[in-house]
Write a structure and sequence with these properties.
The protein has no helices and 24 strands. By secondary structure, it is an all-beta fold. The chain is rod-shaped, with a radius of gyration of 44 Å.
Length: 258
């Protein structure tokens, strides 16, 4: 007994080789880079597995290519020589500006660098996904190439273009939203300290009430320079203009002018 001819096996030698085997008695195993093989001579004439090329599928895909028939292009691998010829995975990670298994996905907003592992400066409005520079602009309240400087004293907001109000301490005006952190100077109130005191109030944050004898008052110092209510006089409206008569008429006391 000499066994079966190439391409067949079994007791009667009538059964073709199973997938992945070839030769006499189908005793030889196909090259594992082949998509099966010719059952007679083992050649890879049925094609190569993903990542391989050549007549015998003995050559890996050329650099920067992978997959079926080496038809796909590698992504932005940190080292293109370490792009898997089979599935395109970047084995040493992604180059700057990209992430994901294939390194084809740009960094999401707020991240940059290799594998997008670095977080943008939180004063940046996002950042350059390659080097982290703030070339897309700064968040409100910040300025400079790296958005590392707060707005100059007295300014705030987008591009530091807004002007602070009448803060009690101008150094305590929020560079972000203009809020006066220690309150308003005399004559103004509300968060931005740009709203004059309403009639009848004065002083820092407009919390002081004008004297009842004043016709309103100076919103800065409370003086009655807008005049006195009827019946009062003097710089502070502290002097009454009338005296009480000693005589009452029909149970009603009459005020007499001075």
């Amino acid at each position: 007994m000499t066994g079966c001819d190439v391409g067949y096996h079994g007791g009667l030698c009538k059964t073709p080789c199973s997938y992945g085997f070839f030769g006499q008695n189908c005793a030889d195993r196909c090259n594992d880079t082949c998509d099966g093989c010719n059952r007679f001579n083992g050649s890879c004439d049925t094609g190569c597995n993903p990542g391989w090329q050549g007549y015998e599928c003995q050559e890996a895909c050329d650099k920067e290519s992978f997959g079926d028939n080496c038809s796909k292009t590698c992504g932005h691998c940190r080292d293109v020589n370490h792009c898997s010829n089979i599935n395109g995975t970047c084995l040493t990670g992604c180059d700057v500006g990209y992430h994901g298994g294939l390194c084809k996905t740009p960094c999401p907003y707020g991240f940059f660098g290799q594998d997008c592992a670095d977080r943008c400066n939180d004063t940046c409005d996002g950042c350059n996904r390659f080097n982290g520079s703030c070339d897309t602009g700064c968040n409100p309240g910040w300025q400079g190439y790296e958005c590392q400087h707060a707005c100059d004293t007295g300014s705030f907001g987008d591009n530091c273009s807004d002007t602070c109000g009448y803060c009690r301490d101008i150094d305590q005006c929020s560079n972000i939203n203009g809020t006066c952190l220690t309150g308003c100077d005399a004559g103004y109130h509300m968060d931005l300290c740009k709203t004059p005191c309403p009639s009848g109030f004065f002083g820092p944050d407009c919390v002081d009430i004008c004297k009842g004898a004043c016709d309103g008052c100076n919103r800065f110092n409370g003086s009655c320079d807008s005049g006195c209510n009827t019946g009062w006089q003097g710089y502070e409206c502290q002097i009454g203009k009338f005296v009480i008569c000693q005589k009452c008429i029909q149970y009603e006391c009459i005020q007499c002018p001075l």
